[in-house]
């Protein structure tokens, strides 16, 4: 091969090698540029901070049930009990006779007073006829009239004493206590029975000024027995104090229990639940917004990354109530803030990001 041809082939091979190396370097630079761009502009998902209404059980007050009518029946005269007509637990109607105290002497006194009254009435009628005929003086007439009036008063007093030997129910209800025994000697004022109405049944609670403002004090109220089976009843606020007691600083609410809940008995200890006027709202985030170590933990604080002005900023938040798929959060956060969900461990503060989509609420 001539020398000139060998020189030409060597020159061409050198040029080709130089071009190949140059292209390789350009490709490397392009790859590096793409890596830097992807590092500085990260595509990720996010969730939005939002307000959530949380159910509130309000506040529970311990109270007791009472009947609208409740009374102790006491002996009105002294003497021995002759008959007892009712027992513990018996239902009675207003006016029913409960017990009879010995009544022989009161009855005799009433008979004497009645006869004396009848005699005085007849005398007065005769004196009135004579007075109309001007046969007696005005003084004699008025004395006869006074004797008649006094005799009538004595008759009525004797009748009342006789009636007091029989004690009657003051209203319809049930005998909840009985201390009367046949043959027992009692004194006037001794308690013999305790009677209360079965229905309606009421309860009352006393609210401070702050509680009266914060809690719902009208409409239906939930009432539960404190002891025994966990059954619930409903009542209605029927009355409340028009002013705040200046000494106790409280407002009284009176609640009437629905008669359908017949397991509510007078004297029963109950818990009265009053709801808040309006459900409170809190800031909450889906648990996907937190690092795995914080999702189901009870740590007081956590770190999230928030998109702000196209860049990532780091925030420290306080964790509140666990709401299943959500966490209550407080701190440097506001409604509408976008919180990064994925690749947080690789994020660099102030790195530009591209927001692709928002997680569905509550998605984990």
Helix content estimate? 25-40%
- Using the 3D structure, state the CATH architecture of the domain at 42-54 and 280-358: Beta Barrel
Bulk shape = elongated
CATH hierarchy class name of the domain at 42-54 and 280-358:
Mainly Beta
Largest sheet: 8 strands, mixed
Report how far the terminal alpha carbons are from each other: 77 Å
Question: Largest sheet, order of strands side by side?
Answer: 2-17-20-19-18-21-1-22
Secondary structure tally, helices: 5
Rg, alpha carbons: 48 Å
CATH topology (fold) name of the domain at 42-54 and 280-358: conserved putative lor/sdh protein from methanococcus maripaludis s2 fold
Extract low-pLDDT stretches.
27-43, 293-297, 343-364
Structural class: alpha+beta
Average pLDDT for all residues: 79
Number of strands: 22
> How much of the polypeptide forms β-strand, as a percent range?
35-45%
Describe the protein's architecture and organization.
It is a single chain. The protein has helices at residues 3-40, 104-132, 138-163, 209-214, 292-295; strands at residues 42-48, 50-53, 59-67, 70-74, 79-84, 91-92, 97-101, 166-168, 173-178, 185-186, 191-196, 201-208, 220-225, 233-240, 250-257, 269-274, 281-286, 301-308, 311-323, 326-331, 338-340, 353-358. The protein is an alpha+beta fold. Among the domains are: 42-54 and 280-358, conserved putative lor/sdh protein from methanococcus maripaludis s2 fold; 60-67 and 199-274, Efflux pump adaptor protein, beta barrel domain (Elongation Factor Tu (Ef-tu), domain 3, Beta Barrel); 104-164, Helix Hairpins, CATH 1.10.287. The strands form 4 sheets. An 8-stranded mixed β-sheet has the order 2-17-20-19-18-21-1-22. Strands 3-12-15-14-13-16 form a 6-stranded antiparallel barrel. Strands 4-11-9-6 form a 4-stranded antiparallel β-sheet, with no helix packed on it. It is elongated and about 170 Å long. The two termini are 77 Å apart.
